[in-house]
Amino acid sequence: MVPATAEKPLRADARRNREKVLAAARAVFAEQGVDAQMDDVAKRADVGVGTVYRHFPTKDALLNALSDELFAVVAVYTRNLLTVDDPWEAFTRAMWFAAEKTSGDRAFSEIMSASSRMPPRTCPGKEDLDVTVAELMDRCKAAGKMRPDAMVDDIGLMMCGVGSASQMEHPVPEAWRRHLAIMLDGLRAEAASSHLHG
């Protein structure tokens, strides 16, 4: 009978291979977008393509894992900002962090743009992020720093726009930064006030 401990190195190897595949996929899909192939991921990870499919049976499963991972990272960072005293600073720091994480990731931008046409699925990181962003926005509105008609759904559209801007040619280097700054200015309470009284 084989001792149970003999299986542990295999599980560790499997975990390492999964991390290698995710790291490689993150780079490959960020560069090539969702049209990148599983073979490309296997080559970058220096594993057989069978190893990739063993962990992620389809390309969609791999893309979902990557987007889930990214949402989880952004959600944790954003939740920690609830301790920041200035609500507008906390909110804008969350937006800039999310934009920095996604600006060079072509695949993530494409996934987010296509998400409205994809079957709904559970993503704990996104759900957590939505709740936290809503809380940050409520704090901003209560402090009179954000326009009262702003909604959480607006933020998803904004970030899709930032992702698209990061992939387009523009006369200004890193135009997504300018794009995000303009959109954040539009969320300020002063913007709504000047629009109403302009």
Structural description of this entry:
- The structure is a single chain.
- The protein is mainly α.
- Helix 4 packs antiparallel against helix 5 (87-102).
- Residues 4-9 have low confidence and may be disordered.
- The longest helix is centred in the first third of the chain and has 25 residues, at 8-32.
- It contains ten helices and no strands.
- It has two domains: 1-57, Arc Repressor Mutant, subunit A (Orthogonal Bundle); 67-197, Tetracycline Repressor, domain 2.
Reconstruct the topology from this structure.
Elements: H1 8-32, H2 38-45, H3 49-55, H4 59-80, H5 87-102, H6 106-114, H7 124-142, H8 152-167, H9 175-187, H10 189-197
Helix pairs in contact: 1-2, 1-4, 2-3, 4-5, 4-7, 5-7, 5-9, 6-8, 8-9
